[in-house]
Structures are given as C-alpha cells and as structure tokens.
Specification:
The complex is a heterodimer of chains A (about 625) and B (about 425).
Chain A lengths: L1 E2 L11 E8 L5 H11 L17 H6 L7 E7 L5 E8 L7 H9 L3 E7 L6 H12 L3 E7 L8 H12 L7 E2 L8 H11 L12 E10 L3 E10 L1 E3 L4 E3 L5 E2 L3 E5 L3 E3 L2 E3 L3 E5 L13 E4 L18 E7 L5 H13 L5 E7 L3 E8 L2 H15 L3 E3 L6 E5 L4 E4 L10 E16 L3 H10 L3 E9 L2 E9 H4 L3 H8 L5 E11 L2 E8 L2 E2 L5 E4 L3 H15 L7 E7 L2 E8 L15 H16 L1 E4 L2 E4 H8 L11
Helix pairs in contact in A: 7-8, 12-14
Chain B lengths: L3 E2 L33 H5 L6 E7 L1 E2 L13 H4 L5 H19 L6 E8 L7 H15 L1 E11 L6 H9 L4 E7 L3 H6 L8 H12 L3 E8 L6 H13 L4 E6 L7 H7 L8 H17 L3 E4 L2 E3 L7 H8 L2 E5 L4 E4 L2 E5 L3 H9 L5 E6 L2 H12 L6 E2 L5 H12 L5 H5 L2 E2 L3 H5 L1 H8 L4
Parallel strand pairs in B: 2-4, 2-11, 4-5, 5-6, 6-7, 7-8
Antiparallel strand pairs in B: 1-3, 8-10, 9-10, 12-13, 13-14, 15-16
Classes of the chains: A alpha+beta (about 625), B alpha/beta (about 425).
GO cellular component, one term (chain A): plasma membrane
InterPro entries (chain A): EF-4 (IPR006297), EFG_III/V (IPR035647), EFG_V-like (IPR000640), G_TR_CS (IPR031157), LepA_C_sf (IPR038363), LepA_CTD (IPR013842), LepA_IV (IPR035654), P-loop_NTPase (IPR027417)
GO molecular function, one term (chain A): GTPase activity
Chain lengths: ~625, ~425
C-alpha cells in the first residue's frame, strides 16, 4: 500500500458519506465507475469496467457481494473542495444485514433506478432500510440514453414511493456520463455532513471485513466519534479484545495510508487479526487507550438461515474441502460448517448459509478457487422440534429429525415482498398460496405495478420459488424477504428407501400436504436415474414406517448380445475397463449400486440454480 | 452395379449386430514399417492354432443399419478396387510369412469376411486360398469359410468355391420376413435361402451356416419365430443370431429418431434371445457361444473359436485385426492407403498394442466365459474365485460346469455376460 499525503482530520462539514441503492443490472457499478472518472481518482486509461467489484464472481455476475468504499475529492459548484465517500452496498437479499451496516455508515443514499425498467423489489426493500436509517434519499433515473427509457413514467413512480415531485428525480447515464457531475453536486447539497463528536472516545463502525492473505483481516470502517490512529491499539467492543492497529488509511480507489481516520471519515483499518470473526461486520471499534463505553447500535451475530451438506465427489478431496472451508471462513463470518457423514455421499460438511445465493457463491468459490468438485444436498432451513416430553431439538439436517413422539414443529417464516406488473397478480397469488403464503397486503406503486406482501415459510422460498416466480411472470417479478420469526407447522420427514434402506441424502422435511408429491417425484426421478440391477429394486417414499409412494426398477435381463470377434477384442476390453471405472464411482446402498450422477441429478433441484437474479 | 467399400474388417454385410463398429480403432503404439514382431510373441506360435482372416471390403449396396464409411470403386482409385484386391491381399499374405518366419505353423483355418467376399469372382478367392497355402501350407482338414450374401451367389459360383478348397459357407439370411429385410435394407428375398443352401449342399460344402438378426424395428415375436423356423427348416449345421444395435449415424438411427421406426427395448431383446435359444435347441442346435449355435462340436466355427481361445490369427485386408502371442495390431482402414503401403513393401499395420499379462487375463476371462466349454476356474485370480459361488447362486453360472472345474454360463448368464465378467475380474 502506498503512503500518500492525505491530511488526516478532514473537516466534517466538508464530508459527504453516501451509498447507491439499486437493483442488479440497473447500472450501479457503471455509475460508480463513472464517478471515479469524473472526480479524477481513476484516469480514463486505467479504467476497467466495474472497478469497485473486486471479486471475479462479482464481476462475472455483475453483482456486488462484499461492500467496497472509495474516497472521491470533489470541487462542488459552490467552489469548495469536498470529500465524498461512496460506500458500495451488496445487492442481494441474503446480505440484508451487510446492507444495513453499509447504510448505517452513510448519511445519504442515491436511489438508482433503471429508466427502462422501474423500481424492483430488492431496491424497494433497501430503500425502506435506508429510510429507517434516516438517510437522505436522492432519487435518480439511470440509463436515460436507452431508447426504451421511460423517464417520465418511472419518475412518477419514484415520486409516489418516496414522496417527492417527479421533477426532483435526477436523470443520468452512467454509460455516457450525462448528469453525473450534477448528481455529485446534489449529493453535496442534500446529504447532511456527519455530526459526530471529534473529541469523544473513538467509535468506528465496521461495515465490512475481508481477509487478505498478506495483511490478515482488513476492516472497512466509518468513524462516528473521535479518531482511530495507528498510535493506539484498537478494541472490538463486542468481544472486548484489543488488537494492534497496524495500518489506517483510505481507499481512493487504491489504498492510501493516512495513519488515522477522524470523525465522519470512511476508510480502512488493519487490526492485525487472522480471522474475520475477530472483526465482525457491525461491531464497534474503539481505542484501547481511551475506550468508548457504549457500542453503536445495530450489531448482531450473523445467523445461518439455510443449511446444506457439501460433499466432494471424489472422497479423497475431503481434507482439501476442509482446508478450503477454513480459508473461506476467514473471509466470511456468516459461513458455518461442521463435519457430517452420509451413508450415500461419504464424508462432507453440513454448512450454514445466510441464504441460497450465499450457498451458491460459497460453492462456486470452492469449486473455482480451490478446484474441488462438489455435490450439495437439497438445502433446508432450521426447524425447532418440541417433543411430547417437552424436550426440544434444533434440526438443521433431515437426518437429525427426532424419531420419538413429536408434539410441535416450528419453522422460520419470512415477510416476502413481490413487485410485479398487475397482469401477473393472479398467477403470483396462486403460486404464493401454493407455497403456504399468507397475503398481508397489496399496494399499487403505479397503475400497472403492484407490491404484494406475504408471510411465507422460508423453507418454501428456498425450494425453487424464484424459478417458479420467474416462469409465471416471464421474468418481470422481483422478490425480497426478511426473517419474521417462526411459526408452528405440520411438517413431516419423508425418507426415500432403496430396497428397504434409507438413503439419507434424499430425506427431506416437507409440509404434510406436500409429502406425497415429494415422494412421487423423488421415487420417479430415481427410477429413471438408477440403472437396472441384477435384481428388482423397490424405491419407496415413507413417513416413518408408512409408505406413501413406490416405484420399481425391474431387474436387468441382458447386458450383452453382441458378437465378439477378432477385431472387437481390444475395444471390448477397453469398454470393460471403462465400465469398471464407472463402477468405482458408484455408491452402494445396501446391495444397490447407484451412480454418483444419479445423486447429483436427483439432488439438483431447481432451487440450486434459481437465485442468480433473485 | 457400383461396388462400395466397407471400411472395417470382421463385420460381414451378412448382417452381424454392429455394436461398437462405429467406434474408431483403439489407440495404440505405432508399429515398425516392416511389421516385425517381438521374439517373445513369435515364441508363442507353436502353442496355438493359426487362422487367417481375409477382409474383403466391398459391398454392392449399403445396408441401412450399417454405419461404415463406404466408397464406390471409382472413388477408391490408386489400384484399390475390387479387381486388384486379390493381388494386394496376396502381398500381405507373403508379408505375414516373412514376419512370422520359419516358426510359423501350418494354417488351420481361413475365413473370408467383409464386406461381401462373394462379390469377388470365385477365382480371386481361389487365388487367395492358394496364396495362403503357398505361404504357410494349409493343414489337412483345414476349415476354409466364406461369408456369402444370398443374392450374391448361384449354384455355379458355389461349385467353383468348393472346388477352390472352401469347406464352409455362412449365408447372411437375417430374417425370413420381407418387411424385416426391408427395414434392414437387405436385397434378397426370403425364398432365396432354400435355394442357396441346397446349392451349397450339392456343391459339397461340409458346413453350412446362416446368420440371423433379431430386434429390428417392426419385428414382432411372431416374425422372429417365423425366421427361426425358416432357418431350422434349412437344416443348417450352424446358426449365428445377433441382436440389432441401432448405431448413430446410420439411416436406421435417423429413422428411429424421426419416429418412423420403433427401437426394440432390452427386455424384448432378452425375450427374443430366449426364443432363439429354445427353438434352436429343440432343433438340435446347441449354443456353444453367446451368439452361436451348432449341431455338434464338429460344426463349431473353428476359426471363430480361435478368437475366443486366444489363438494366433493374422487379419489380411484394410482395417483387419491380428493377434500373435499377446501382440494385437490393426491395419489402416482405407483401401487406398492399404494398397499403397503394400506396394511400397511396407506393413499396412496402423497401430499395435502389446497386451500386458494382466490384460491378457482380462481377455481370457472375457472371451472364455462366452463359450459353452467355459473357463477353467484355475485360471481365475483369488478375487475372481471368490465371486464364483455367488454367480452359481444367482443362476448365472452352471453348477454342473463348476463341478467339472469350469465356469460355464446358463442362458440367463449368457444374457448377462458383462455382469459375469465384471464379477470375475474384481481386480480390473
């Protein structure tokens, strides 16, 4: 990291901290890139697309997973030199908590909406979050250069949602740069300067924490009161642990060492720890020498909402998987994992995730960055099972479902918000109803756009809900949800048996009314996927000892009727070797040989590929 | 009539099931230009019977289920036409004699396959039999077979072939039902078979065999019964029956894909096999190999037995495969290149492999269990031996055979030969 003459202690009156709230594809990263160019911190020739999205996966998918921040010097139209901090927010439902911490680091938010598409559920959810955080909202329509842009229509819509005049909605094009300087001037004018106490004991909020193999953990902080300097050890208020303050600086957009950050400023602190769990997002950092007494509000431990078993397809990669998970956890305080053994899949890990996207990102990083090939079991949520003897079980894995007399089962519930064109309301209501949704409200955002509010079990959302929603609305609906406690439900565990043996990997916890459908679909799938054996193989679905669905794989009757003459021998031998190789990749359940592909195909429910643009 | 070339050896237009035939030749090492073999391989020569296979790569027309590359004679050029085939093939026979050297045994069997060998004038086949005799000597009582399409021979041709020293003829009958023959694109009519068999008998052939195909799209159980009955009525010494495999890239595969024809499923094929075995057995023809039936050991195809017992054979002709003492090789596939190589005095071998001792064991088991005579249990590894009881218990291996120290398969076992082979080769 270079050291540069950035004077510490910028006057708070000249600081503006803001973020951009936008839906994926609405051009947030392009606009952020344009701001880097307009303010001169990145020269045009060094510009690469989406400068702030650093991870490969983010760049490829065009989404932001980890928040980034950047300091932008800006001479406003009042002739004064300001310091703007742009705090980039993650853009997905799984990362609501991280979003809320990023928002808490700002005084203002640019609400960025695609002028050709209008506002989406995700944006709306984050907008509400920003309003709750008392942020000043600056409404902006982006992509006004597009032929399909309808700025009048969507300015109207935004005005109605946030309660302003349509004429207050700025119009920009991140692509051409039109309107960007005006937007920055508006940020200076509208967003209030920070108002912390520069002389109070230091309090800085960690809004992001990343692990770097060379530097250890790097935290991104917003200083509220006092200042953080390398002269003092820093103290994490949630754990009470003090650490060396190795380096303090700002990002502009490369790291620049400043030695200290004072009230109102945004920058980075390297606290000399090896694991992001020692410097968690949302925690308050203070000075060990003169510690603050009260934490900033809003901190909470990240809680996994969705669990799935991850298994290496090649069993010998198990140690490598453990090592990889250990490494990812350094950078991902929300990821949990513990070893798990499956009769069908061998050794693996039960992993906890914030949501499906989080699951998919972790899985993708494991495969891409660590070269592993994985199979993941169907995701499930966390259930609370109360037995008749009033003992309680927390079930994160269908295998742990208790076998005794169950009195009550509770499952997590979410408040879901669906934004959609009015044409599809019927179809979506039907879908939500079929997923045990309870309608809580319906608001017209515009003549042709509706916001539906439902409470729904999270377990229903993680099971291919995104796909179903998209196919019923031709991709026009968007979804967001927030945890909303738990509710008692009629849930049962459905087991799948091959020749009478339970295949743990296929057990699922489903609502009583859906058990039959699950059983029929899974037994049917397996009948297609499992090759015929020398004997008949019954495939059954059962709740406890009650069989609810059954299929049969008939015994194989012939595997050879071809000739084998002189010219066929070498080929036949090689074919045999290949078959043998294939057999080695088979898992044996009882006497039944099941190819790994069958597990993969049977387990790849639609949910695992559905969340790319939730 | 244009003559087309069939690009791979060992697969008669006489209509064998064409499983795996679309596959390219296996990967192998490149052989020396003069075809020299390692001394260790040559040292095994005295221990085995010796067969010569001659692949005649021409067909009059192409059958709809056949996925070979075909070329018209005009396209071949370079002296690779049917007219010069006997000359070129004779050159390879002489090369074989040079490579095998003075240790080469006399020849036990000769087999003309294709393609359609009977598209060549009988005099050409006669010349090739002479070339073999000149090069190695034909053992007294040698078996000399040709495959023949019923429409490609008449009484006179069969007499000439018999006179040239052929002892055995195998007719590509395929089916007795016209609509099945049509589905297979076969040119002959069912009525042709009694005639050609009669002519062959009159000409004095010692053994007459017919080939059948079952499981063609549109073939019913009754159609197959009719074909089996018709075959039995011919009183052949030998019958081969193969399940049709629909190969990608064939006209047949396209028609199946378009839904014009319905593919026969595996269970139906198993039924057809049982039907064949029952009918042929009732007619006094016993299965001596998975797909071959004979009236007695004297009617077994001795040439093919050589393949299954690991004997020595040299395959003459484009794409033909050979085996000498654990070395396998195969010739270049294109007749033009084949011809050019021989004219330049070079071996036409494209690639070869030296089969490792472990792989020779695999081959031994894989081929041995196909035969009714079975595989001696003493040849099994301890791991393979451990699987034997289970094979008997599950009805795949014959307990009587085991009592005599051999693994021989029941009918159910023959249908599941691959399963048996995998069980007997746990260390593969």
């Amino acid at each position: 990291m270079s050291s540069a003459p950035q004077a510490p202690g910028v006057d708070q009156a000249l600081i503006r901290n803001f973020c951009i709230i936008a839906h994926i594809d609405h051009g947030k990263s392009t606009l952020a890139d344009r701001m880097l160019g307009v303010t001169g911190v990145v020269e045009a020739r060094n510009m690469r697309a989406q400068y702030l999205d650093r991870m490969d996966i983010e760049r490829e998918r065009g989404i932001t997973i980890k928040a980034q921040n950047v300091r932008l010097p800006w001479k406003a139209d009042d002739g004064r030199d300001y310091v703007l901090h742009l705090i980039d927010t993650p853009g997905h439902v799984d990362f609501t908590y991280e979003v809320s911490r990023s928002l808490a680091a700002c005084e203002g938010a640019v609400l960025l909406v695609d002028a050709a598409q209008g506002i989406e559920a995700q944006t709306l959810a984050n907008l509400y979050l920003a309003i709750e955080n008392d942020l000043t909202i600056i409404p902006v329509l982006n992509k006004i250069d597009l032929p399909a842009a309808q700025p009048e229509k969507y300015a109207e819509e935004i005005a109605q949602i946030i309660g302003c005049e349509p004429s207050d909605v700025l119009r920009v094009s991140g692509k051409t740069g039109v309107g960007v300087p005006e937007l920055l001037n508006e940020v200076v004018r509208k967003v209030p300067p920070p108002a912390g106490d520069p002389n109070a004991p230091a309090r800085a909020m960690i809004f992001d924490s990343v692990y770097d193999i060379y530097r250890g953990v790097i935290t991104y902080v917003r200083v509220i009161d006092g200042s953080i300097t390398t002269r003092d050890r820093c103290l994490m208020m949630s754990t009470g642990a003090a650490h060396e303050t190795l380096e303090v600086g700002v990002i502009s957009p490369e790291p620049v060492v400043t030695g200290s950050l004072s009230a109102g400023e945004v920058g980075y602190v390297i606290p000399g720890v090896k694991d992001v769990r020692q410097a968690r997002v949302g925690d308050t950092m203070t000075s060990a020498r003169r510690p603050a007494t009260e934490m900033l509000g809003g901190y909470r431990d990240p809680l996994p909402m969705v669990y799935s078993g991850l298994y290496p397809i090649d069993g010998s990669e198990y140690p490598a998987l453990r090592e990889a998970l250990d490494k990812l956890q350094l950078n991902d305080a929300a990821l949990t994992f513990e070893p798990e053994t499956s009769a069908a899949l061998g050794f693996g890990f039960r992993c906890g995730f914030l949501g499906l996207l989080h699951l998919e990102i972790v899985r993708e990083r494991l495969e891409r960055e660590f070269g592993l090939t994985l199979i993941s079991t169907a995701p499930n949520v966390v259930y609370r099972v109360v037995m008749e003897d009033l003992t309680e079980h927390t079930v994160t894995n269908p295998s742990d479902w208790p076998s005794g007399k169950i009195s009550e089962v509770y499952e997590p519930i979410v408040n879901a918000m669906v934004l959609l064109p009015t044409d599809f309301v019927g179809a979506v209501m039907e879908l939500c109803q079929s997923r045990r949704g309870v309608l809580k409200g319906m608001d017209y955002l515009a003549a042709d756009r509706v916001e539906l509010k439902y409470t729904m079990p999270l377990g229903e959302i993680i099971f291919d809900f995104f796909d179903a929603l998209k196919s019923r609305t031709r991709g026009y609906a968007s979804l967001d949800y927030d945890p909303a406690g738990e509710s008692q439900s009629d849930l049962v565990k459905v087991d799948i048996l091959l020749q009478g043996e339970t295949v743990d990997a296929f057990s699922a916890i489903v609502h009583k009314d859906k058990a039959y459908a699950y059983g029929v679909s899974m037994t049917g799938k397996l009948r297609e996927l499992i090759p015929r054996q020398q004997f008949e193989v019954p495939i059954q679905a059962a709740i406890g000892s009650r069989i609810i669905a059954r299929e049969n794989i008939r015994a194989i009757r012939k595997d050879v009727l071809a000739k084998c003459y002189g010219g066929d021998i070498t080929r036949k031998r090689k074919l045999l070797e290949k078959q043998k190789e294939g057999k080695k990749r088979m898992k044996t359940i009882g006497r039944v040989e099941v190819p790994q592909e069958a597990f993969i195909a049977a387990l790849s429910n639609d949910a695992s590929k559905s969340n790319r643009s939730g | 009539m244009p003559i087309t070339w069939i690009g791979e050896a060992g697969h008669p237009a006489g209509g064998r099931t064409l499983e795996d035939m679309s596959a390219k030749p296996p990967e192998g090492q490149s052989p020396p230009a003069d075809g020299t073999l390692p001394a260790a391989a040559l040292a095994e020569l005295p221990r085995h019977a010796f067969g010569i296979y001659i692949h005649v790569p021409y067909c009059a027309t192409r059958c709809g289920y056949c996925d070979f590359n075909t070329y018209t004679a005009a396209e071949l050029g370079g002296g690779a036409s049917a007219a010069t085939f006997a000359t070129t093939a004779s050159a390879e026979i002489r090369l074989a004699a040079r490579v095998l050297g003075p240790g080469a045994p006399a020849v036990d069997t000769v087999f003309f396959g294709g393609g359609t060998p009977t598209l060549l004038p009988p005099a050409d086949l006669a010349a090739l039999v002479c070339a073999v005799d000149d090069a190695f000597g034909l053992r007294p009582g040698a078996e000399v077979t040709t495959e023949a399409n019923p429409e490609s021979v008449d009484a006179a041709a069969l007499e000439q072939l018999r006179a040239a020293g052929l002892t055995r003829v195998s007719f590509g009958m395929q089916s007795a039902r016209p609509h099945v023959l049509a589905a297979l694109d076969r040119q002959h009519t069912p009525g042709r078979l009694p005639d050609v068999v009669d002519w062959a008998r009159k000409a004095g052939f010692e053994q007459v065999s017919v080939d059948l195909i079952y499981g063609a799209p549109g073939e019913s159980e009754r159609d197959w019964a009719a074909s089996l009955d018709a075959a039995v009525d011919l009183a052949p010494d030998h019958v081969s029956a193969y399940a049709l495999t629909v190969e990608e890239g064939t006209k047949l595969a396209r028609r199946v894909r378009r839904g014009e024809l319905l593919e026969t499923d595996d269970d139906q094929l198993a039924d057809r096999y049982i039907q064949a075995d029952e009918t042929l057995q009732a007619a006094g023809l016993a299965a001596y190999e998975v797909s071959n039936w004979a009236s007695g050991p004297e009617a077994w195809c001795r040439h093919n037995m050589g393949y299954w017992r690991g004997a020595t054979w040299w395959g003459i002709g484009p794409g033909a495969h050979s085996h000498v003492g654990g070395v396998r090789w195969w010739n270049v596939r294109h007749p033009t290149e084949y011809t050019q190589r021989l004219r330049a005095g070079q071996s036409p071998a494209q690639a070869r492999e030296t089969v490792s001792p472990a792989d020779r064991h695999v081959e031994r088991v894989m081929l041995g269990v196909r035969l009714a005579e079975g595989l001696p249990v003493v040849e099994l590894t301890p791991g393979g031996l451990a699987a034997v009881d289970d094979l008997v218990a599950s009805g795949l291996a014959d307990p009587a055979g085991l009592a005599a120290g051999r693994i021989s398969l029941t009918r159910q076992g023959r249908l599941l030969t691959d399963t048996v082979v995998r069980a007997l080769l746990p260390d593969l």
